[in-house]
Amino acid sequence: MERGHGITNGSRNGLQLVDSCRSWSKSSAIDRTMGYWALGTGLQLLLLLLALGGSELQVKAKGSLIQRSFDEMVLECAELMSIVHSKLARIRSGVMLPDEDTKCLIRCVGISGRFWNDHTGLRKELLARYFVTDPADAYNVNRTEACLQELPALDLNAEKCCGLAFESFLCYYYNYGNLRQDSVFVPLDHLQLQHVTSRCMDVHQITTEQLMSLSEEAMDANDKVHCLVRCIGLQTGVYSDREGVSIDRLYAQYGEGHCDKEFKTNAVECITKHRELAYGSPCKRAYHLLYKCFENVRNVISAYELPDSDGN
Question: Which residue ranges does the chain devote to CATH 1.10.238.20?
């Protein structure tokens, strides 16, 4: 994929800075109200996913770190959608015409990269990761936000999703920066998270019944649980023994609905607090830095992952 039009200068440069933490979603179809977060992530819920989702998982998803470039996802989606070579070449050269094939291809890329969902719309912070910004351009966020605000409300009509996904992408493409050439971390989806949990439970010989029976105190003292948490962290790419917690990836995986700066500030504070307790085995260290800091941010079985789970 050629770099996009990137930074453009125009009358919008005079806009005042906007709150980059404000979520863009005009849909009232799904209630995404969440209480003020207690430090944590869905790792606690991941430990119980099999109990909630069934112990027999017929999943072929890869339970490992996924990093993909925008162009790789364009090529994959073009193949899945049988986009003709000439049109694909035009799109990869940076020419984004508003025909239906191009619109739906960009929607497909958004689904693959986790920055678009037909039920919840655009996840801005994930789309932004695919662009390189110009440090000298102080108004790229302003222009992008102004562009997004001009778009119509999210409509669950499938025929309109391609157009809205495409227009949302164009707001970034023409205002935010240039498309990256390198690979970007892609959060795992619900089934992939289930696969990771199932695999880690098998590796460490932990059953759902055992997990369900453990109290908080028992989990704190259970070496197998410590290693299970470490395994999940390693397999999802949010943790490594060498680097510790990757707060950036953790936010990408679990931070939807939370302000980037607030999430990461609270994360650093909690990690600093628990670091002194994280001595000992690699498993114990991972348990303290991940589970003790990041429980209960969100249930990975939610309206975002399973929008029809409540019958709507």
Answer: 67-185, 190-302
pLDDT at 114: 95
Residue 35 one-letter amino acid: G
Which residue is listed with tokens 């704190």? 220
Which CATH number is associated with domain 67-185?
Answer: 1.10.238.20
Task: Report mean pLDDT in 10-residue bins for the chain, 312 residues.
Answer: 40 35 38 34 47 37 73 97 96 94 97 94 95 96 97 80 96 97 91 85 89 83 90 90 90 84 87 74 88 52 33 43
Secondary structure class of 244 (helix, strand, coil)? strand
CA 310 to each of CA 31, 42, 97, 117: distance values in angstroms, whole numbers, following the listed order: 11, 20, 38, 17
Burial 223-235 (b: 16+ CB within 10 A, else e): ebbbbbbbbbbbb
Instruction: Report the distance separating Cα 161 and Cα 12, nearest Å.
Output: 27
Contact predicate 69/210, CB 8 Å:
no
Q: What is the largest CA-CA distance in the chain?
A: 62
Instruction: Note the pTM of the prediction, 2 decimals.
Output: 0.72
